[in-house]
């Protein structure tokens, strides 16, 4: 079931009933997506892993309160997005960012030196360009173009107006279009 | 419609998120402006690059269930 975001109604029902395997299935289904959002936002695999753990802890604690008004996936993206933005806004995180550990460098720092050499120039440029976007635009483009959420789902997850989602997404893509110019056909 | 106004709609056009009237005005502009047509293609190519980014994979062997430290065999099953 991993990788499939479709009808989660059966999984939600099992979660509500306290099926001990249901939470494991939830983690298997969504761990990579939650980790992916965190990695793109925070730029560090270690931090992303830590944040993903926190997301699932919160989900586990709150699953009984999940009313099913939104899709399960949207709820998970909501929690992950908010935790990422909160962490980026924290004073501790600001201090780190002002130091030598910049997001730009972190964006390509997760692989080993050997693996790093093998990464394509395009891939590195993409990750760097995404990492350099302002946070409020980066989260929108990550959710839309990397995770495939609809405008409505992004608006719900980030508590934004649809027009704001549309505007931030456009600005992010314009920025990326300029930065990735030399890779365009 | 100016070129600037047209280009502001490219993102919504790609996502098919334009209203009928907006779409009609933009289409009319694109039909007569080769520069904007080329710019739209570059915009589309940029979004295509983004959507082709390899999905990130969480490190294997970690059990993200609260209170668990080791991972069960199911956690390391192949992904998307």
Key terms:
heterodimer; A: 185 residues; mainly alpha; 11 helices; B: 80 residues; disordered C terminus
The largest sheet of chain B, given as strand count, sense and whether it forms a barrel, is:
none
Number of helices of chain A: 11
User: How much helix is in the residues of chain B?
Assistant: 40-55%
Low-confidence stretches of chain B: 69-80
The biggest beta sheet of chain A is recorded as: none
N- and C-termini, Cα separation of chain A: 36 Å
Q: Strand percentage of chain B, roughly?
A: under 5%
Largest interface: A-B, 46 and 33 residues
In short:
The complex is a heterodimer of chains A (185) and B (80). Chain A is mostly helical and 185 residues long.
Structure description:
The complex is a heterodimer of chains A (185) and B (80). Chain A is an all-alpha fold and 185 residues long. Helices cover 72% and strands 0% of the residues of chain A. In chain A, helix 9 (135-146) crosses helix 11 (162-179). Residues 98-108 of chain A have low confidence and may be disordered. Chain B is mainly alpha-helical. Chain B has a domain at 3-52. Chain B has four helices and no strands. The radius of gyration of chain B is 22 Å and the shape is elongated. Mean pLDDT of chain B is 81; it is low at 69-80.
